[in-house]
Design goal:
The chain is of the alpha+beta class. The chain has 2 domains: 14-198 and 224-274, Hsp33 domain, CATH 3.55.30; 277-319, Alpha-Beta Complex (CBS domain Like), CATH 3.90.1280. The chain has helices spanning 37-44, 50-67, 107-113, 119-123, 152-164, 226-236, 240-244, 250-258, 279-286, 291-297, and strands at residues 17-23, 28-35, 75-82, 86-94, 98-105, 126-133, 141-146, 168-178, 184-195, 264-265, 269-270, 272-273, 304-307, 314-317. Strands 1, 2, 8, 9, 10 and 11 form a 6-stranded antiparallel beta sheet that branches. A 6-stranded mixed beta sheet has the order 7-6-3-4-5-12. Strands 13-14 form a two-stranded antiparallel ribbon. A hairpin with a 5-residue loop joins β8 (168-178) and β9. 36% of the residues are buried.
């Protein structure tokens, strides 16, 4: 019989949690995630087509996996701007646990693409940015990578290679099922693992391909550490159905992957659907516009109508 993981509690079978873990013999640390009702709450506020919902669910899962590692009060944001049918994706995580998201898309282009279109094809080419904000008086950090038709996960891996320079493995899966009345519910899961040995020399990676190097240029290569080869292979062996299976708790999934080496989990972090919009914030934003522009925003009754793109809440303000 399999022994319980260190720190294991029944909540690890729940949805809407991020579960930190470490595999000490492989010098590997990471996080696993399972989302359900939070995704439904975020997506239900908008009349998104199926393919757009799937793409945004993937973006929310990726953002929560990456941003939940931050240990300070601030924000982590994913933003994709593209030339594709979905021209804008924004996912905002107010650390440690508040998620909100929205997408802009061309309805006709999405309809032509159909529900079976891949997330990468919906995005096309453009840029994917990750922004970290730590309080009002700290410098903001932003990392940007090209999408180039490869999708969010491939672009995120490029970000890890060029910005963090930490060997990283990433798996994300999204699934939907129909419910009575014609609606649908979403589930998503994923694992992010990173190689963090005590010796920095063991973390060395090959240089990024220069792209325009002359023909015959010998590229710099570095042999991968055996411990990381094993850890990465175990993460990549996780199947989509395992990542989203409601009957398979995250602790059981991690045990399945790493039991031969030993895996230790920490307390889970519950993720929440939370929009930070408010009348006060909107007034602060409007105060930055010139008086002439404010005048053009007023409706016949003299008020300004504002709808939050994240949560669809409507405001009417006298300014």
């Amino acid at each position: 019989m399999a022994e319980a993981l260190v720190g294991s509690v029944p909540a690890f079978g729940a949805d809407d949690i991020v579960l930190p873990f470490r595999v000490e013999p492989l010098d590997t640390r990471g996080r696993a995630i399972r989302l359900g009702p939070v995704l439904d709450a975020i997506l239900a506020r908008h009349a998104y087509p199926l393919a757009v919902e799937r793409l945004l669910a993937e973006a929310v899962t990726l953002t929560a996996l990456m941003g939940s590692s931050l240990k300070f009060e601030g924000r982590f944001q994913l933003q994709a701007r593209t030339n594709g049918a979905v021209s804008l994706l924004v996912v905002d995580l107010a650390t440690p646990d508040g998620l909100r998201a929205y997408a802009r898309f061309d309805s006709e282009a999405v309809a032509i693409a159909g529900n079976a279109v891949s997330p990468a094809a919906l995005l096309g080419s453009g840029q994917l940015g990750f922004t970290v904000e730590q309080g009002a008086y700290r410098q903001r950090y932003q990392g940007i990578v090209a999408l180039d038709g490869h999708g969010l996960l491939e672009a995120a891996m490029q970000y890890f290679r060029q910005s963090e320079q930490i060997p990283t493995a990433l798996r994300v899966a999204v699934a939907e099922h129909h419910v009575a009345g014609g609606g649908r519910q979403w589930r998503a899961g994923g694992i992010l693992a990173q190689f963090l040995p005590t010796s920095p020399e063991r973390m060395r990676q090959a240089d990024l391909h220069p792209g325009d190097a002359p023909e015959g240029t010998v590229l710099h290569t570095v042999p991968e550490d055996d411990a990381w080869i094993e850890a990465r292979a175990l993460v990549e062996s996780a199947e989509d159905i395992e990542l989203v299976d409601p009957a398979l708790g995250l602790d059981r999934l991690l045990y399945r992957l790493f039991n031969e080496r030993g895996v230790i989990v920490s307390d889970p972090l519950a993720m929440r659907d939370e929009c930070r919009c408010s009348e006060e914030r909107i007034r602060e934003t409007l105060a930055q516009f010139p008086v002439e522009e404010i005048a053009t925003m007023r409706e016949d009754d003299g008020q300004i109508a504002v709808t939050c793109e994240f949560c669809s809440r409507k405001y009417r303000l006298s300014v």
